[in-house]
């Protein structure tokens, strides 16, 4: 199928991209990553579409990379979009606004995507975290460290990155991330 893991919908001038892999916490496997890049590419090329909303089915916006596929060694960046970054937005400049509408939790790469969007809204029961540090990794792949450092006072950015603990939607709001 062309779109196994995304639902694409046009409502007037609004393009809604729904990450639809809730049984895997919307973790990005190669197929989903490809679909997101193609969706954003399409959005950019359509003059009538003026804003995109990136959202999710289920209670996790995105849990980052698909660790199973990563372990199998088959995980790869999408063809023709290798420099667009995680989810097609962390390293790619889109000339039109993208709003992340986070339903629930955004973790790791999912949090990077939320930070990379032009605007971010989150459900009141949501949370944002970069749990990579708990696995002795640093959340640098999608530029999260740099982005958090620009978006937040440095001590808060360091707390987020060095503890790996989630912050609530309310805290993310208080800090100005959402």
Mind explaining what this structure looks like?
The structure is a single chain. The chain has a five-stranded mixed sheet with strand order 1-2-3-5-7, covered by helices on one side. A four-stranded mixed sheet has the order 4-6-8-9. Strand 2 (14-19), helix 1 and strand 3 (51-56) form a beta-alpha-beta unit. It has helices spanning 30-45, 67-72, 109-116, 144-151, 154-163, 169-174; strands at residues 6-11, 14-19, 51-56, 60-62, 98-102, 105-107, 119-122, 127-129, 167-168. It is of the alpha/beta class and 178 residues long. The relative contact order is 0.14. Helix 4 packs antiparallel against helix 5.
How would you describe this structure in keywords?
178 residues, 6 helices, alpha/beta, globular, four-stranded mixed beta sheet, five-stranded mixed beta sheet
The tally of helices reads 6
Query: What is the rounded Rg?
Result: 15 Å
Structural class determined from secondary elements: alpha/beta
Kindly report how far apart the N and C termini lie: 34 Å
Poorly predicted tracts of residues: none
* Fraction of residues in H or I helices: 25-40%
